[in-house]
Amino acid sequence: MCFDLQGYALWVADAGGFYDPETRPAGESKRGAALTARKSAPLVRAGAELLLADLQSSDRSGLSVLDADARTVRMLDISNRVRPPFALPELPGHGRCVVGAGPERRISDTDWESTLVAVRLDGTAVWEHAMNVRPQGVIADAGGTVVTWSTPTQERWSKYRKWFDLSTECVVRGVSSSGEHLWTWHPPGPLTANPVISASGQLYVAADDRLWALG
Predict the structure, then answer these.
(1) What pairs with residue 129 in β-bridges?
(2) pLDDT tens per residue, range 125-153
(3) How far is CA 189 from CA 109, 147, 165, 185, 208, in A?
(4) Which of 24, 57, 105, 174 is least surrounded by CB atoms within 10 angstroms?
């Protein structure tokens, strides 16, 4: 559901489309059409009026792109290839793409290989990037450079860092718009907030009670 800054409801959306706040599709409950943005699959913004969300209605559900300007909802057939977290960057030569966590592969009894994948909105795979940790967040800058990260919880860090090397679990990584590894930074402790990219392209990371600026 969309509100303006004065709290006025502008529209409601579900997998069936956009609706005025005072109306609802036939058969819906009094709550009207519901937008479900689960904790594991948050609402993602890309551009002024483009959103990526996990939507549901009385008869359909799935990962969808909402164009609030055109008032259209497009369900994507990529749920079996991309998992949360997501970003929705513009990748040169491919247009708008969903970048998120991909398949995981067992390497040994104790080791797994995770992936970061990029998929076009028509379902075409663009690239796959192997990682030794599961992505916990994904963002991208205006040029399509992707930043992903993983971090242990503060509780895990406090309990086990004296006994185990947890530095490999603290990871911030840059990936090019074509899926190539650019750099990896291991912060000195768990991340305490999600990294952000400024309008000028500066990356800010909060960890170890400090704010880090990465160029």
Answers:
(1) 116
(2) 999 999 988 899 999 999 999 999 988 77
(3) 27, 18, 11, 11, 5
(4) 105
Structure tokens at 28: 């819906």
The closest alpha carbon to 52, from 64, 40, 60, belongs to 64
Residue 132 in tokens: 């030794």
- Model pTM score: 0.78
Which contiguous run of DSSP H or E holds residue 214?
Answer: strand 210-214
Domains annotated for the chain, with CATH where assigned, are: 1-75 (no CATH), 81-215 (2.130.10.10)
User: Which amino acid is located at 202 in the chain?
Assistant: Q
If you average pLDDT over residues 95-106, what whole number do you get?
A: 88
Q: Tell me the two tokens of residue 126.
A: 């663009």
* Paired tokens of 54: 């996990």
For residue 70, give every residue at least 6 positions away whose Cβ sits within 8 Å of its Cβ, in sequence order, or none: 49
Q: Which residues of 33-51 are buried (b: 16+ CB within 10 A; e: fewer)?
A: bbbeeeeebeebebeeebb
Q: How far apart are CA 191 and CA 206, in angstroms?
A: 6
Taking CA 109 as the corner, what is the angle to CA 107 and CA 113, rounded to the nearest 5 degrees? 30
